[in-house]
Amino acid sequence: MSPELVVDLAAIRHNVRVLKELTGTAMMTVVKADGYGHGLAEAARAAREGGADWIGVATIAEAVALRESGDTGRALCWLTTPGDDWAAAISRDVDVTVYSEAALIEVLATGLDARVQIKVDTGLHRGGAPRAQWEGLFARAAAEGVRVTGLWTHFSSSDEPDDPANDDQERAFDEALALARRHGLDPEVTHLANSAAAILRPSARRDLVRCGIASYGLDPAPGHTPDLGLRPAMTARAHLALVKAVDAGDAVSYGRTWTASRPTTLGLVPAGYGDGLPRVGGNHAEVWVAGRRRPVRGRICMDQLVVDLDGDDPGAGAEVVVFGPGDHGEPTAQDWAEACGTISYEIVTRIGGRFTRTYVDTDRLGP
């Protein structure tokens, strides 16, 4: 049996509703990176059912995939490189994002009636027009009669609500908006709040919030986020391929990084870093087998990992929950993130490989 990712569409729908009610503003659900590993098309449909007004994707290819899945509502894409096929998004009624006059010229060259959003860099220093270029970009957009439907930016530290950079970025955004309006631009929506800011920073909610990771039930700011009743949508599970006994002194997996201090039993799980489970989780992460958390022993391999069953023998074929919602005590994606020194975003977006994806809808299960 292949390892499996079970995605509960009801959880995504629920999370979008909760977030929209909390923020009281228009909601963009972000489904980039294949819906944060949950499936782009399926996540988008569930989000629309939950009340998402917009869907957000990164690339033009993702925008095309969204439309080919049947989605027809407002949508925005924002990550392009020179020479990309802008027309593929514009002709499918997707708003596109520009960071520069050069990108704006490429949009104009399509000859299509584009809906354009301008992203400004207010301190993340990643994508977006740097401050020195705001004036020229706004002036060019106004002179060309571009239909500017949005002005937006992205926080660097919204998961750290006390970081003064948040105030600085919000002030900078207001300066950009004032400058854009002086040039005659009147964006339909202004937005800067991602999941953490949407939850923790009411002043950043503006006309629209962009919720990615929180839409999938994962905490965007561990240690700061109140309990909103969000439900993790993904469960990663497999089945034991083998159970074996080992003696005290037996070492496990490559490099012999763990040695049994006493006789025990080990379970072999047919999933590894080739399937997206971080190799650094060896000797740190846990899984759930036979009603208990079981520690990963030794290094995680490309195709498999080993867990300590503490003398139990549930038998080959027993279910393994790698991570899930945590309702029964099983590890969560956040637990794996902490064990691996990363964030839950990385855990759910990178998992794949031989995992097959299955969808359930716990709101619509029969009797």
Can you describe what's shown?
Its EC number is 5.1.1.1. Belongs to the alanine racemase family. The modification N6-(pyridoxal phosphate)lysine is found at residue 32. This is Alanine racemase. Keywords: Isomerase, Pyridoxal phosphate. 28% of the residues lie in helices and 24% in strands. Helix 1 packs across helix 3 and helix 10 (333-340) packs across helix 11. The protein has helices at residues 9-23, 32-36, 40-49, 60-68, 86-90, 101-109, 134-143, 165-182, 195-200, 333-340, 344-350, and strands spanning 4-8, 26-30, 54-59, 74-79, 95-98, 115-119, 147-152, 189-191, 208-211, 234-239, 242-246, 251-252, 258-259, 264-269, 286-289, 292-297, 305-308, 319-323, 356-360. The chain has 367 residues and is of the alpha/beta class. It has eleven helices and 19 strands. The strands form three sheets. Strands 11-14-17-16-15-18-10-1-19 form a nine-stranded mixed β-sheet. The protein has an eight-stranded parallel β-sheet with strand order 8-7-6-5-4-3-2-9. Strands 12-13 form a two-stranded antiparallel sheet. The two termini are 27 Å apart. Helix 7 links the parallel strand 6 (115-119) and strand 7 (147-152). The chain folds into two domains: 9-215, TIM Barrel, CATH 3.20.20; 234-360, Lyase, Ornithine Decarboxylase, Chain A, domain 1 (Beta Barrel). It is elongated, with a radius of gyration of 23 Å.
